[in-house]
Design brief:
CATH topology of the largest domain: Arc Repressor Mutant, subunit A
Helix content: 55-70%
CATH architecture of the largest domain: Orthogonal Bundle
Radius of gyration: 28 Å
Number of strands: 4
CATH class of the largest domain: Mainly Alpha
Order of helices and strands: HEHEEHHHEHHHHHHHH
Shape: elongated
Structural class: mainly alpha
Number of helices: 13
Amino acid sequence: MVVDDHEMGISHVIRGEDHIANTPKQIAMQRALNFNVPTYAHLPLILNPDRSKLSKRYAETSLLAYRGKYLPEAVINFMAFLGWHPKEEKDVMTAEELIKEFDLERVQKAGAVFNEEKLKWLNAEHMKRKQDQVIQTTAQGILENYSGVTPEKAHSTAELIFSRMKTLDDYNELAKPILELLFYEPELLIWKNTNKSIAKAHLGAVKKIINELEPLDLNRAEEAIMAYANTEGRGEVLWPLRVALSGERDSQGPFELMKVLGKDETLRRINIAINKL
């Protein structure tokens, strides 16, 4: 290694702290051979969440799985922050910013924990910077994975789920309940201490409001439904409507869903909910 470094003209050796013990021996050999001694720097080890040493097998498997899941910018940002931090308090940085600001003096001594939740957060932040591109890519993925979906429907679905995406492949899970109504239990339609008959009555009233709008004007529909909800109780009206449209406990708002679903699909899902009750 000493001879190889000399022949390649290596000026800096930056490696893990587990090589510190080798460094004095290599420097002694370089001096004995009258070689130039490179500048050595040792980085803290990358640790698992339980603070054990990150194994090569774990890293290799994970990095291969990250293709198509995380933006390259996010991975670079995340890896740079494992054991280093900039002068200013900021987390989201481009490769150019990292190159400009990197300084070995700011490398920390403690081991850096490989926290994938932090990577997901960084990825979501970088996705916001490339929103149009990510939405376009997401729409293309929807078209390839769901039959019978028009390009317009795929794009509107991608726009709707974008704010909830943390990784590039999150659309698989987020788009499914919008494009395919999933099974859900009737009890999910019931708001807090109300009952099935109340939920059914409110869904019937909302259905009547939507039916009377031809063609469906979302602004007028929202105005009319909110007027009814403000009288009868927002939770009592909007909760069963949202669940009827999404089939989920947690989802986008009912009016956002109506915009993507359209009038016919909105009424179909409301009818399914009413029949469940």
